[in-house]
Amino acid sequence: MKELFCTAAGLQRxxxxxxxxxxxxxxxxxPTMPHNTxxxxxxxxxLSGEQLGDKEELFQNVLSxxxxxxxxxxxxxxxxxxxxxxxxxxxxxxxxxGLKVVEIEKCRSDIQKLREEMASRSHSSFLDDxxxxxxxxxxxxxxxxxxxxxxxxxxRKPTFDVWQWEPNEMLSxxxxxxxxxxxxxxxxxxxxxLKRWLLCIHDNYRNNPFHNFRHCFCVTQMMYSMIHLxxxxxxxxxxxxxxxxxxxxxxxxxxxxxxxxxxxxxxTELAVRYNDISPLENHHCAVAFQIFSQPDCNIFSSIDxxxxxxxxxxxxxxxxxxxxxxxxxxxxxxKQIVDVFDFSNEEHVTCLKMVLIKxxxxxxxxxxxxxxxxxxxxxxxxxxxxSDREKLEGLPVAPFMDREKVTxxxxxxxxxxxxxxxxxxxxxxxxxxxxxAMVQPLxxxxxxxxxxxxxxxxxxxVQKKKSENSTAGSERK
Length: 477
What we know:
63% of the residues lie in helices and 2% in strands. By secondary structure, it is mostly helical. The chain has a two-stranded antiparallel ribbon. Helix 14 (279-292) runs antiparallel to helix 15 (305-320) and helix 15 crosses helix 17 (346-361). 28% of the residues are buried. Mean pLDDT is 85; it is low at 121-131.
């Protein structure tokens, strides 16, 4: 994006630039930046070598801007002390080490990360942040894409490539799912309200590496494909289908990027509010139904109160089931009934729906390698962000989240072998049709990561021997 700005301004591609709005305020260059207009154009300001050379002045300017923003945004003594201490450390590095330009950029990056962490913590309360919960547009304006027949068919399969779509296109695909399953007609959903609701849903997913709107789309698309693959509309009610799809859409709303373990250990506002009991999942439910409480976003407005209560309870039950702390409990309950499963038994169907949303939530390895593997990178990035923060705050760090201990194969092998395959094989007993489309790809993924692990181990052993030989040679000399 910076190269595009340089080209547009007639500057060399490697020019260091700042982007200003009409008020002279600096604009962050990233994919989420607002569009400029003729009335409020952006201004590209190249930074000269002299400006870059004056490293201490540049750093102090950035420091003062960040300090001013923090001063306005936070009023909690604990946070102010933390910010002051960490910024003081960075300032001391400049004074004592005489940082070069490249190192100054690293400092600026550290400050940006700190700002994002503080913003993340400040957003832990959705009750105080009503802006996101308000639809951005009075009339939905994202383009209505015409989905080709090829896309419509692909959307029904687990092999669908979720990386090829922009947010507006994903919104149109989600809209198509509600129409295709007959939910718009059967529950008298206003199509314009459906659009507004989806836009508001999009706005209430944060830009985390993993738990973001694309993950929401990914989980919902897998649920949509399971509904078709297992012919669920022939076996359960349309209300069940509505709850399955809606819970998938809402299941990670406003996820802060730090899991329940962090929330509880750090004693965050969410953990305190929900008494350490599934704080994130409870928060996702609360945000979902606060959105539904807005008339412009209430896709259930035509449904009678009693039916709405059932939909609400069903949706909450499914979202709460996505807490991995309950994984063993939920899967074991399903194993006990799968051999005598009765689709007319409400408890059996509820248990099935809980397992289905769990399958969809952690189903990335069901997908083709080229679609699944980038999600591992995203998840590890989010894990490393959390473990770095836990180390900084003196909190316990899980080994599988520690960048110094985990690799992609070690992260995936155990999860696939002991979590994914047993759960999907249990579902396969009820729906044999998923064996080829879902269970077999999981086994292939397990085998691939085990091969990668063997290569990693062999490489590590060779390096170890080289190091030992080198040490021995030095000692003989």
